[in-house]
């Protein structure tokens, strides 16, 4: 997991509430045993036509949003199942930040575990950003340390984030990274255990 500090990117508007994880990545594609290859499946049922060709009307297929790295969506984003594949697909596609009025708790926690930042802003402000994103090249700068979102017109919003989650994101620490911070203590504990007991090797 890479540390997250600041990011500036083109905003992609996805004006829809209650986007569930099956819409983000359909269940029929959850057959891989690793976490790669999901970017091309992101929003598959909306992104592609029945013959498999990209739907030119879908936002990700519009030229002005290609390369966009900040997704702005409606309330309750990421609801539904707890599948981690949803955040894998968003990150692999290229999104580094998702802004919405609210997120499903499990989705937000899954996102934090891979370094994908979820930012909660008031619904009215999200609506304004959605409208502004209709202009080609509209960007936001997200500063995690300062907890701010700034656009090119000088509008700055502050967002709240759990202190522990912020620490982990700033330092690139997922659950394994947090555990390995105590590698020396784990090694000492293992060295002191009776030889007949099962052992953990790092």
UniProtKB/TrEMBL annotation:
Reaction(s) catalysed (UniProt annotation): (2R,3S)-3-isopropylmalate = (2S)-2-isopropylmalate
EC number: 4.2.1.33
Keywords: Amino-acid biosynthesis, Branched-chain amino acid biosynthesis, Leucine biosynthesis, Lyase
InterPro entries in the cross-refs: 3-IsopropMal_deHydase_ssu (IPR004431), Aconitase/3IPM_dehydase_swvl (IPR015928), AconitaseA/IPMdHydase_ssu_swvl (IPR000573), IPMI_Swivel (IPR033940), LeuD (IPR050075)
The protein's annotated pathway: Amino-acid biosynthesis; L-leucine biosynthesis; L-leucine from 3-methyl-2-oxobutanoate: step 2/4
Matching Gene3D superfamilies: Aconitase, domain 4
GO cellular component, one term: 3-isopropylmalate dehydratase complex
Domain Aconitase A/isopropylmalate dehydratase small subunit swivel positions: 1-123
Entry GO MF terms: 3-isopropylmalate dehydratase activity
GO BP terms: L-leucine biosynthetic process
Assembly notes: Heterodimer of LeuC and LeuD.
Family to which the UniProt record says this protein belongs: Belongs to the LeuD family. LeuD type 1 subfamily.
HAMAP family: LeuD_type1
Its job: Catalyzes the isomerization between 2-isopropylmalate and 3-isopropylmalate, via the formation of 2-isopropylmaleate.
Protein name (database record): 3-isopropylmalate dehydratase small subunit
Lineage per the UniProt record: Bacteria, Bacillati, Candidatus Sysuimicrobiota, Candidatus Sysuimicrobiia, Candidatus Sysuimicrobiales
Gene that this polypeptide is encoded by: leuD
């Amino acid at each position: 997991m890479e540390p997250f500090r600041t990011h500036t990117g083109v905003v992609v508007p996805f004006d829809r509430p209650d986007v569930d994880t099956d819409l983000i990545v359909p269940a029929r594609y959850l057959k891989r045993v690793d976490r790669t290859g999901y970017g091309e499946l992101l929003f598959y049922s909306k992104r592609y036509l029945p013959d498999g060709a990209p739907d030119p009307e879908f936002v990700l297929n519009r030229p002005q949003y290609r390369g966009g790295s900040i997704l702005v969506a409606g309330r309750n984003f990421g609801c539904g199942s707890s599948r981690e594949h949803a955040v894998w697909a968003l990150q692999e596609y290229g999104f580094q930040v998702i802004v919405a009025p609210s997120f499903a708790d499990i989705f937000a926690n899954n996102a934090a575990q891979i370094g994908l930042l979820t930012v909660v802003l008031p619904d009215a402000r999200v609506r304004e950003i959605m409208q502004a994103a209709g202009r080609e090249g509209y960007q936001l700068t997200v500063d995690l340390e300062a907890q701010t979102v700034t656009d090119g017109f000088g509008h700055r919003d502050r967002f709240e984030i759990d202190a522990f989650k912020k620490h982990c994101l700033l330092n690139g620490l997922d659950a394994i990274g947090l555990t390995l911070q105590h590698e020396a203590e784990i090694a000492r504990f293992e060295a002191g255990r009776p030889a007949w007991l099962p052992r953990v090797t790092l």
